[in-house]
Each structure stands twice: as C-alpha cells, then as structure tokens.
Design brief:
The chain is mostly helical and 122 residues long. 70% of the residues lie in helices and 0% in strands. It has one domain (3-121): Methane Monooxygenase Hydroxylase, Chain G, domain 1.
C-alpha cells in the first residue's frame, strides 16, 4: 500500500452501500493504514518473496519433496501472519468507519467481514 492509499477519504453517497472503505474509482483504498502494520507487512512480504524464489530453486534443483513441502508450509504460515495483521487493520479502520457510517454501510461491512472470515478459515 502506498502512502496515497493510506489517506482517509470520506464516503460518498455513490459508495455508501459498497465496501466499508467506501472508496473505489481506479482501485479501492483503505480508510486508514497503521504505519507500523504497513511497514511490518511490507517487510514480511519481501521476506516471503525471497522464500518463494528459494522454492523455485529447490524445484529446479529437484530437491527432496518433503523439504520443498516443508518450505511451502512455512510460506503459507508467513502469509497467514500478514493476513492477520491486515485483517486487524481492516477491522480497526475500514470496518469501524463503515459501521459508524449508518445502517446500509454497516450491513455491507458485516457481510464483507463474514466473507473474509470464511475465506481465511480455508
């Protein structure tokens, strides 16, 4: 997320029933991003990117399957960690703003949160 994405923007009537962030256009933006969460997430994602490149090398070098699978599990867990951080940010900023925004916006956010929870449980 760029610093431009982190700026709070007020919801418009056009987006009142959309996502809780209520900002669309060329792309949806977060209602607010905790700078510490953003920094930690970017560092973790860069580390994960390196892990994935390492996995590619392992496959190219025909490394032992169990070793590759162990590293894949490590990448999955690292991504889940980033997801938890971003979910916390989403609840703290985007969801809170939407819920305060009124019934229609709150209902859309409740649906979005339920959907996100089910997707992350898989």
């Amino acid at each position: 997320m760029s610093s431009e994405q982190a700026t709070e923007q007020p919801p418009t009537e056009e987006h009142a029933a959309g996502c809780g962030c209520a900002v669309h256009g060329d792309g949806r933006r977060a209602a607010g991003v905790d700078p510490a969460i953003k920094d930690r997430s970017l560092k973790r994602l860069r580390r994960i990117e390196g892990q994935v490149r390492g996995l590619q090398r392992m496959v190219e070098e025909e490394r032992y399957c169990a070793d590759v699978l162990t590293q894949i599990a490590s990448v999955h867990e690292a991504l889940r960690g980033v997801g938890r951080e971003l979910m916390r940010n989403h609840l703290r900023h985007c969801a809170a703003q939407a819920i305060r925004g009124g019934d229609e916006q709150a209902e859309a956010m409740y649906d979005e949160i339920i959907d996100l929870m089910y997707r992350h449980v898989r």
